[in-house]
Amino acid sequence: MLHFLRLFCLFSSRSGTGNAIRAPLGIHRANMHRYWFEDAPSNLTDQLGYLRSVKRLTAAELETFTEGLSIPDGVVSRPLIEQSRAADNHSGFRILDYVKVRANRSGNYWIQCPSCAQQGRDRSMDNLAISIGDTRFYKCWAGCTREMIREALGQPIPQRRYRSY
pLDDT tens-digit profile of 16-49? Predict the structure, then answer.
């Protein structure tokens, strides 16, 4: 039997369009807030009990439920993102020269954050996202700064020197 998790789309009140999908019981990585099912008390035991009580659909039931539905054309394919000329000609620091890519999804390379690793964190080895379109852009989802990441790689960001006239 196939198992599916019920997902809820988040909507913007201004535009009326969805901007993300959140799964109940997931923990938001930035604020460490857990999202609960609204139909059960807010503790893990009751939440899991509620989840076990929800009717599971068989593949045939899911097929019947989605029969005739289609994905709107605007959602099916994403436009290609043109890589900037600056990314092609960038001769400075290249983070991909110092790290090992572990996954490629959502337009990003996902790797273990070197700063988190030095601090004994990021056991799942996927805190650092590096943009595939322009690898100059990277972010640690655990909150490490660019300076901390570069320092951990032994490549600190050079201090800018200003001329005095």
Answer: 444 455 567 777 777 777 778 788 888 889 988 8
> Tokens in use for 23?
């799964």
pLDDT tens, residue by residue, 96-135: 989 888 888 888 899 999 999 998 887 788 889 999 888 8
Q: Among residues 49, 75, 101, which one ends one of the domains?
A: 75
User: Which pair of tokens denotes residue 58?
Assistant: 């068989």
Task: Supply 56's token pair.
Answer: 């599971």
**Residue 24: what residue type?**
P
**Model-level pTM?**
0.44
CA–CA distance, 107 with 42 (Å, rounded to integer): 34
Confirm whether 15 is domain-assigned: yes
Which amino acid would we find at residue 155?
Q
Dihedral (Cα; 106, 112, 113, 114), 10-degree rounding? -150
State the Cα–Cα distance between residues 75 and 71, nearest whole angstrom.
7
